[in-house]
Recover the amino acids of this structure.
C-alpha cells in the first residue's frame, strides 16, 4: 500500500474518532442534562479537549458521572487523533502529502503508459531513455533507498509497493498501460510479476529481465513477450566490439548518448491516413519530406524486412520502423497519421 493511502486512512480514522467522540458527548448532555444542542456541543468540545472551562449549566450526579467517563474515554482517543495529524503535517508532511496526492492523480489519468517494476541499474537506464523520448511511465519500487533516490534525483511518477502484489500493479494503472518492463533482481519475482500481469491485462506487452537461459524460457512461458539476459547482450557487444569497433561505436551513439535526440519509432500502416495506404513508399514521398529513414518494415506475421525498396507497398497490417531525431519523427507522424 502506498504511503499516501496510509496517510489518508490515518487522517480519516483520526477525524472520525474525534467526530464520534464529540457527537456521543453532545448526545449524552442533551439526554442526561437537558441541554440545548448548542450548549451540548460546546460542553462536549471543552470536555473532550480538557481545556478546563466552567460548566454551561450546573451538572447533576449523572451528568458529572457521564462527564468523568467521557474525559477518561477521550484522553487516549483525542491524544491519538492529535498525534496522528501532527505527525503527518509536521516537518513538511503536508507538502509531501499534497505532492503524493497530485502524483497519484496523474497516474490515475495515464493511458497507454509504461510500467517499470524495480528501480535498479537496468531500470535506471530504461527510465532515462524513456524520459529522453518523452514517453510517460510509472516506476514501482518498495526499497526505501531507491525510493529516496527517486524523490531526490528525479521527477518520475512512482508507486511505493511490492510489484508482485496485484493491488500495487493496479495502482500503477496496469489495466490502462501498454507495456510492462520487469527488472527485479530475482528471477522468481520477475516470473511471478509476468504471470500476474498477463492475467490482469492479456493485451499488455511484457518485457522481462532474466539472469540465465533456463529462467528466460520459464519467464516466456509465463507470458513475457520479450526477455533480456544482460550478460548475453554484454557478451555479444564485447565480441562485436572486438571485430567491428566502428559499428559498435555508432550503435552506442544511438543508444547511450545522453543529450542525443536520435530515436527509433515503430508506426502501424493501419494508423496512417487512408491516402497513404495502398501506395508505395516512393509514391507517398513522406519519408524524404520528414527526413526520416525507414530502416525496416514488419509484416503481419512479425517478420522484419530490412531496407525496404522505394516500390514497397504500404499494406494494411504492416508496420514501419523509423530512425530519426524527435522532431523528424514528430513531423512524420503529423504528416501521415490519422
Amino acid at each position: 500500500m502506498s504511503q499516501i493511502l496510509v496517510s489518508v486512512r490515518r487522517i480519516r480514522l483520526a477525524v472520525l474518532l474525534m467526530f464520534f467522540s464529540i457527537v456521543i458527548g453532545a448526545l449524552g448532555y442533551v439526554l442526561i442534562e437537558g441541554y440545548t444542542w448548542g450548549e451540548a456541543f460546546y460542553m462536549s468540545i471543552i470536555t473532550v479537549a480538557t481545556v478546563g472551562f466552567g460548566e454551561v449549566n450546573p451538572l447533576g450526579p449523572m451528568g458529572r458521572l457521564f462527564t468523568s467517563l467521557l474525559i477518561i474515554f477521550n484522553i487516549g482517543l483525542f491524544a491519538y487523533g492529535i498525534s496522528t495529524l501532527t505527525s503527518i503535517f509536521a516537518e513538511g508532511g503536508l507538502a509531501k502529502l499534497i505532492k503524493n496526492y497530485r502524483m497519484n492523480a496523474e497516474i490515475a489519468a495515464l493511458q497507454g503508459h509504461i510500467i517499470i517494476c524495480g528501480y535498479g541499474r537496468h531500470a535506471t537506464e530504461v527510465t532515462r531513455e524513456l524520459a529522453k523520448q518523452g514517453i510517460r511511465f510509472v516506476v514501482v519500487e518498495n526499497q526505501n533507498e531507491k525510493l529516496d533516490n527517486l524523490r531526490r534525483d528525479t521527477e518520475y511518477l512512482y508507486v511505493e509497493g511490492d510489484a508482485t502484489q496485484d493491488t500495487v500493479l493496479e495502482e500503477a494503472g496496469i489495466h490502462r498501460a501498454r507495456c510492462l518492463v520487469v527488472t527485479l533482481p530475482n528471477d522468481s519475482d520477475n516470473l511471478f510479476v509476468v504471470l500476474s500481469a498477463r492475467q490482469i491485462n492479456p493485451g499488455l506487452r511484457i518485457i522481462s529481465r532474466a539472469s540465465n537461459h533456463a529462467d528466460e524460457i520459464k519467464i516466456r512461458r509465463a507470458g513475457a513477450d520479450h526477455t533480456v539476459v544482460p550478460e548475453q547482450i554484454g557478451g555479444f557487444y564485447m565480441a562485436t566490439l572486438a571485430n567491428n569497433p566502428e559499428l559498435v561505436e555508432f550503435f552506442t551513439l544511438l543508444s547511450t548518448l545522453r543529450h542525443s535526440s536520435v530515436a527509433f519509432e515503430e508506426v502501424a500502416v493501419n494508423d496512417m491516413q487512408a491516402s497513404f495506404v495502398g501506395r508505395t513508399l516512393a509514391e507517398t514521398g513522406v519519408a524524404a519530406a520528414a527526413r526520416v529513414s525507414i530502416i525496416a518494415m514488419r509484416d503481419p506475421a512479425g517478420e522484419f524486412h530490412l531496407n525496404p525498396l522505394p516500390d514497397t507497398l504500404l499494406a494494411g497490417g504492416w508496420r514501419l520502423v523509423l530512425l530519426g531525431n524527435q522532431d523528424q519523427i514528430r513531423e512524420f507522424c503529423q504528416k501521415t497519421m490519422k
About this structure: The beta strands are 114-117, 137-141, 157-160, 179-182, 205-209, 226-228, 262-268, 293-298, 304-306, 319-325.
